[in-house]
Design goal:
The protein is α+β, with helices and mostly antiparallel strands. The strands form 2 sheets. Strands 1-2-3-7-5 form a 5-stranded antiparallel β-sheet, with no helix packed on it. β1 and β2 form a beta hairpin.
Length: 155
């Protein structure tokens, strides 16, 4: 680990476990019982992996664009064939975008956004995700991520 400047210092080397010690290997192995004690986190990662593998837009490499929404928030837009995905990450406090200044937020044509996944889902220990209201702008909960998918407008 000497290639990492902070770990390469002699005073830090004394705190690193010996990689040749068998106990270092044993301590680094996964404890599968933690799936129960940290069930919400385990479910979140399991669901994210499933989304990446099974979602038709995320599972294939396609066009991607991104934008900064604020000092601590950004979005990534994944383009499909009339089936886009919008990943919004907010690493800071709750923010309200009214109006939403970024063109990538706009859904294509006669479509609207539907929440496909949210880190604020109660099964992950979250507070729930408010519905996206086009009249009152966009509310982005702090320290959260949300995935939106396009849905055809109801006639």
């Amino acid at each position: 680990l000497r290639q990492f400047p902070s770990l390469g210092q002699p005073e830090m080397q004394a705190y690193l476990p010996d990689p040749a010690d068998p106990w270092t290997f044993i301590r680094s192995k996964l404890n599968w019982a933690e799936r129960e004690t940290h069930g919400a986190t385990y479910r979140m990662y399991r669901d994210l992996i499933a989304l990446r593998k099974q979602d038709p837009v995320f599972s294939r490499a396609g066009e991607l664009d991104g934008a900064v929404l604020g000092c601590e928030s950004f979005l990534l837009r994944f383009f499909g064939e009339n089936d886009d995905r919008l990943l919004i990450i907010n690493l800071g406090r709750d923010i309200h975008l009214e109006p939403a200044p970024e063109p990538l937020i706009a859904p294509p044509g006669d479509y609207y956004w539907e929440i496909l996944w949210s880190s604020e889902n109660p099964v992950y220990g979250g507070r729930g995700t408010a519905l996206w209201d086009r009249e009152e702008g966009w509310w982005l909960p702090g320290h959260s991520a949300v995935v939106l998918g396009t849905v055809a407008e109801r006639q």
